[in-house]
From TrEMBL:
Protein name: AraC family transcriptional regulator
Pfam families hit by this protein: AraC_binding, HTH_18
Residue stretches making up the HTH araC/xylS-type domain: 193-290
SUPFAM superfamilies reported in the protein's UniProt record: Homeodomain-like, Regulatory protein AraC
Domain of life according to the entry: Bacteria
Organism the protein comes from: Candidatus Cryptobacteroides faecipullorum
InterPro entries to which the protein is assigned, alphabetical: AraC-bd, Homeodomain-like_sf, HTH-like, HTH_AraC, HTH_AraC-typ_CS
Transmembrane regions listed in the UniProt entry: none
Length: 301
C-alpha cells in the first residue's frame, strides 16, 4: 500500500435502494512488486486468502490500470489479467484474484448492490461466465472512479444518489467499450451495418435470408454475428425498426392509419393494428392521439 491509496466504506441505507442501487465500497490502491495481497487495511468482510478465495454479498467492478495478474471464479477458472482489464465480481460467487509478484498492479474498485444491477444480470447484460472484460486503458473510466472516491469523501447531501448515477454510467461505458472492442473485424462490421440499413428501409422487400446473402453470409452465420453485434436477432431488429418507423409516422405525418399500414408493408390495417397494440399496449389511433405533434397555429389580426 502506498500513500496515494484510498479506501472508502460508506454507510448505506434503505433510502438509496429506491434509486435501484447503493454503493458499498470504493477505492484505489497500488500493489508494489513483491508485496503481499490483499492489503490488511480492508474490513474483515473483504479480506481473503488468495489460495482459498472468498464470497461477497455484493457486486464489484475492479479495474486494473497497471501491471498484471490472475483471476479465477466458480464460473470462470484461470483467466490472465492485464492492464485495461475489468473484473466483474458477483454476489454469492466464489472468486480469487491477485497481482503477479514480479509486476504488482494498480487497481480501482467500486462495490454496489440493488435491484437495478440484479435486473441487468437477469437479462444477461453481464454474466458470471464472462467476468473478465478487456476494455483497455480508459481515462474516462478512471475519472469516474476518482469522482466516486471524491464524492464519498465529502458526503454532501444526496451523495449516495450521485454515486449511484456514476455507477450506472460506468456500467454503460464498460458494456459499450467491451462490446465494440470485441468486434474489430472492420469488414464484418461494415456488412452488418449494410444489413441494418436494408432492414431500416421500409421499401426493402428482401427477406432476412436474402439480406444475409446480399452481404455475403449464410443465414445461420449472419444471425449469429448480427446478434453478437447488436444484442438481438435480425428478425427482432427488423420488427423494432418497423415499430419505430410506425411511431414516427403516427406522430409526425398526416397519413391515415390505412396509408401507414400499407407504407410499412402490412397486409391490412387490422394486421398493423394488432402488431402495434401487441407491442405498445394501445392502438395506433390512441398512440397518435396522445403523441401527435400538432402544428402551431398563428392568428393574424
Amino acid at each position: 500500500m502506498t500513500h496515494d491509496d484510498t479506501l472508502r466504506y460508506p454507510g448505506t441505507g434503505i433510502r438509496n435502494e429506491i434509486w435501484g442501487m447503493t454503493v458499498t465500497t470504493a477505492g484505489r490502491q497500488t500493489v508494489l512488486p513483491g508485496s503481499g495481497y490483499p492489503i490488511l487495511s480492508h474490513p474483515s468482510r473483504y479480506l481473503f486468502s488468495t489460495q482459498k478465495g472468498r464470497i461477497l454479498n455484493e457486486y464489484q467492478l475492479v479495474y486494473i490500470t497497471n501491471g498484471g495478474g490472475t483471476f479465477s471464479s466458480a464460473s470462470c477458472p484461470g483467466e490472465k489479467v492485464t492492464a485495461g482489464t475489468v473484473l466483474f465480481l458477483f454476489p454469492e460467487e466464489w472468486h480469487t484474484y491477485s497481482p503477479d509478484k514480479e509486476t504488482g498492479w494498480e487497481e480501482y474498485w467500486v462495490g454496489f448492490r440493488g435491484g437495478l444491477i440484479d435486473s441487468l444480470v437477469d437479462q444477461k447484460t453481464f454474466t458470471r461466465e464472462k467476468p473478465v472484460l478487456d476494455i483497455g486503458i480508459s481515462t474516462g473510466l478512471i475519472s469516474l472512479y476518482e469522482e466516486i472516491i471524491s464524492v464519498l469523501a465529502h458526503e454532501d447531501i444526496g451523495y449516495l444518489q450521485l454515486v449511484t448515477g456514476i455507477i450506472i454510467h460506468m456500467l454503460g461505458s464498460i458494456y459499450y467499450t467491451e462490446k465494440n472492442r470485441s468486434h474489430t473485424d472492420t469488414a464484418t462490421i461494415e456488412k452488418i451495418n449494410e444489413a441494418r440499413m436494408l432492414m431500416k428501409d421500409t421499401d426493402c422487400r428482401m427477406s432476412i435470408e436474402e439480406i444475409a446473402e446480399s452481404v455475403g453470409f449464410g443465414y445461420s452465420r449472419f444471425r449469429k454475428i448480427f446478434k453478437e453485434y447488436t444484442g438481438i436477432p435480425p428478425a427482432r431488429y427488423r420488427l423494432q425498426q418497423k415499430l419505430s418507423k410506425a411511431k414516427e409516422m403516427l406522430t409526425c405525418s398526416m397519413m391515415n392509419i390505412s396509408e401507414i399500414s400499407y407504407a410499412l408493408r402490412f397486409e391490412s390495417p387490422s394486421q398493423f393494428s394488432v402488431f402495434f397494440k401487441n407491442r405498445e399496449g394501445i392502438s395506433p389511433s390512441e398512440f397518435r392521439e396522445r403523441n401527435r405533434l400538432h402544428p402551431r397555429i398563428s392568428y393574424v389580426q
